[in-house]
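G., before I forget:
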Amino acid sequence: MEGLLTINNVWMMICTALVFFMHLGFAFLEIGLTRQKNTINILFKNVFIITMGLLLYGLLGFNLMYPGDFNGYLGFAGFGLSAPLVDGALDLAYSEGYTYWTDFLFQGMFAATAATIVSGAVAERIKINSFMIFVVIYVGLVYPIAGSWKWGGGFLDEMGFYDFAGSTLVHSVGGWGALIAIWLLGARIGKFKDGKIGAFPGHSMPMATAGVIILWLGWFGFNGGSVLSADPGLTSLTLVTTCLAAAAGGVSSFIFSSLLYKNYDITMYLNGILGGLVGITAGADQMSPTDAILIGVIAGVIIVLGVALVDRLRLDDPVGAVAVHLICGIWGTLAVGIFGNLAGVDQFVTQLIGVGCYAAICVVSSFLIFYILKITIGLRVSAKEETEGLDIHEHGMDAYPDFGLNQQ
Amino acid sequence: MEGLLTINNVWMMICTALVFFMHLGFAFLEIGLTRQKNTINILFKNVFIITMGLLLYGLLGFNLMYPGDFNGYLGFAGFGLSAPLVDGALDLAYSEGYTYWTDFLFQGMFAATAATIVSGAVAERIKINSFMIFVVIYVGLVYPIAGSWKWGGGFLDEMGFYDFAGSTLVHSVGGWGALIAIWLLGARIGKFKDGKIGAFPGHSMPMATAGVIILWLGWFGFNGGSVLSADPGLTSLTLVTTCLAAAAGGVSSFIFSSLLYKNYDITMYLNGILGGLVGITAGADQMSPTDAILIGVIAGVIIVLGVALVDRLRLDDPVGAVAVHLICGIWGTLAVGIFGNLAGVDQFVTQLIGVGCYAAICVVSSFLIFYILKITIGLRVSAKEETEGLDIHEHGMDAYPDFGLNQQ
Amino acid sequence: MEGLLTINNVWMMICTALVFFMHLGFAFLEIGLTRQKNTINILFKNVFIITMGLLLYGLLGFNLMYPGDFNGYLGFAGFGLSAPLVDGALDLAYSEGYTYWTDFLFQGMFAATAATIVSGAVAERIKINSFMIFVVIYVGLVYPIAGSWKWGGGFLDEMGFYDFAGSTLVHSVGGWGALIAIWLLGARIGKFKDGKIGAFPGHSMPMATAGVIILWLGWFGFNGGSVLSADPGLTSLTLVTTCLAAAAGGVSSFIFSSLLYKNYDITMYLNGILGGLVGITAGADQMSPTDAILIGVIAGVIIVLGVALVDRLRLDDPVGAVAVHLICGIWGTLAVGIFGNLAGVDQFVTQLIGVGCYAAICVVSSFLIFYILKITIGLRVSAKEETEGLDIHEHGMDAYPDFGLNQQ
């Protein structure tokens, strides 16, 4: 029935728009949590990711991720987009849930997200040229190939691995890249000095908060669209589990961190919300509201411990990307084997195997990319550039050139 | 027909997302109109309201507000969410307009709004612990019980009281709480001194403006979703009346205030828009475009007079919440008896009774909550905290720690 | 089938909301690229445009633009909105794609856009009263009359002129007004001095970036809604071409400007994205992905050259409105004759004629309006006001009265 395709497709297009809007959320969160002097640099990276990411996904990503029949590990359906036609018109029998064009665009919006996660972690010290090269390879090749293993119908899909909307396929793929990157990059100057952990508190809490609210809004599309149709029961359940996990993650992180640190820390609250969102993402369509709340509560605790752990390991992650996207991404993926409709020992083991496979491809590929960049053009800006700010050195401009004291 | 449920449910889910997004609008508006030193505190309150509000609404609010068959005054369908099932699957016959899950989430997003309205009024001086306790009781108990009287099919519904999307049930419920709160709290230090009214102009007009535009956008969902289906005639009429009332409220407030004060005051323009939106909310589906414009024009004038009146009463309302949400909420509720399809003396009297009932429950309950808090843990921060800012004292942090002069 | 109308109408209402949201995008972009001292003035203009614009479009614009049967040049169906009724209820047979109300509101959101484009160009020096008078005439009369020539079924429509979503009807209509305005207004003090071009770099790159991302999001509705139904193939193709052109415009502008100026300039990247969006707008439903990318790439180059050209002509356009909306608007309109389904010499000539007709009406009418304003109440604020800022002089207030050094 064409009417049903029309409804489903409307829902999917809206979800696509919401996932696109997440890029503003990421940008606001990242610049909010970093220093004023590196603001343009971060904005530039984010704009690069969404624009170049879409072009690359059109050129080759989409056909690497969804190669059709393939060996389950690597396939490629050719360069560019080729819409299926019937008598010269778009073949609407492509799917009941969306058209070929919607499929591409929805998946393309996801693709850029993985690189954006890395962007936050490496902020304030990476060379922009090196980062752009990383983005091109990671979004253009690694993300879609890794994605094909599950969403493209590859070997992990055959094995029964479950990842509804990408706790692993998107978030931990970004998170592993972030982890390798900050390990190879080293910490920002002054972050770890004389055994102490320096505070680098960022330049705008309103932007960080706005970023998280926009990301939460975007998750309506990220998870809601991953139903791949407008099925009323499934989409609405997904939105409920998504929102409850976000709420529970925030409250849990707030309570746990305020008990631990005797402080009402807004950034912990915000990262707790994100942790809940990442945690529910792998099984948002398989959980009850109670499951979702439990997953969120645990994610909130994980965030607080995870941020401390990353610091303890002397890894410098300005926005908490590793705790949010990698650790909670793994948590969410494993939670599919513990809570909800799919819970069971077999499923849990399969989830573990999936996590391991993604760890392998992401660690190896990001290490190779970043290591080669490091020994060739270099990963890191000079100490002078870092101290004076990347905005002035890489972009010849301050982010607020006519504000406050700078006012003309 | 399942197709129709699917369409309706898509519309309701989108409206849910838009109402969720209003929380960013409220946050931006409140921090924009208050001082820099209390920014994190306000953001924290807003994040608390949306996260804790959703959890509470799931735990008990939804079942207090929609108890099914009840005595018309107080009913409770039990703790937690219990989706109606048929053969283990969600019963899609629950409603033609939405699924059980969508119903919960849409209403849950509304619930948090009432508390957010109070948040703005008490800004810059309330103890955060006291405010959080108020939120838990007001969102968890008062709002849903009061709501059940009309939307849950209670005695005011039986009597013919009409409140389409909540001029009274949401906005004046928040507004009464705000009024009682600022009366018990007292004014900010320096606001009323030597018979003069001090100017506390806020710290970011761009954020205030962005907040209002986001709130207007959110009202597409707030009113549009209150049709409770995607009925093409009703939803689109509702959007037209909503937008025309907003536009008329803004223009009217701008013209009236510039005649009165010889100044093009952006905050009056913005509050006029909000006044128009609150004013149309009770009858957005019952008005013609001309009615909507008239309701908006009057709301715009009310805003200008209302803000002056609140000042005259020596009540300190940093964001104009009482004028916008309480006074225009009452205006909108009464307007249902004056304009549009339901106009008539009987309806007007019924509307008055409804306004009175909500005044009673809200004034009594907020007074009890705030008064008990005041004589126990206290409502107000110390003069030192207030002067130096709540951000440093309650959150150990400035909202812009690396900005401008603070830059590292 | 009523179900199909319901779906289509849901899509159109969402697109309406997205186009409304573009007004926040425009506001953020404009204030981001201008100086702090003129921020409230710009916000005020934007709020005026959307509120007064909607009222005017309801009063007369809609019936000037869609007069029904008319001579093809000028028609008017009467003041106010008159919904078609059947037995007292809204006639749902009005269209298969939307109701009468949705039609009005979607078109009303478009109408205000043209004036907003002018707002950016004249920023920081125009008298607000003069600007408001211009808006009333341009949105109330010029835009809808010009629009009727094509979208109202007028002579250009009969001739086969094609402008899917308004590269010409919206963007170049605004762009011509901007060009005439900045020519009559003159440059800001200090912009062109001793043969040099002064740098006036704006006060917030985060806001400028957020503005562009919000505008891109809004374009999902601007172009997606211009299908005038939720047709799955056409709407989704339109979103794909829109996003690819935006991405290609940004990347092309980035690469071209960094080769030319040896600098990674974020404002060029952002304007490149906008150029791509404006460029694809005339033919977004007629292009293949490859066509869209090519149109975007060329738009990105045009932006870089266009901004330089405007400077060379000693015209002062603070936000690059002429390059983005006028030059890329013309480019997009002509591109319909070069790429995609309609490509051909005849079509190209028709497109040229259309561009010329719109140039004529817009240049003549904006010249008349601005010239009469100039010789009567004056167009420009005093040198003192301009130097000290329009916020203090026209609005009695700073945009950040309690921020940084201003903090109380």
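Chain C has one domain: 2-81+88-403. The radius of gyration of chain C is 21 Å.

More on Monday.
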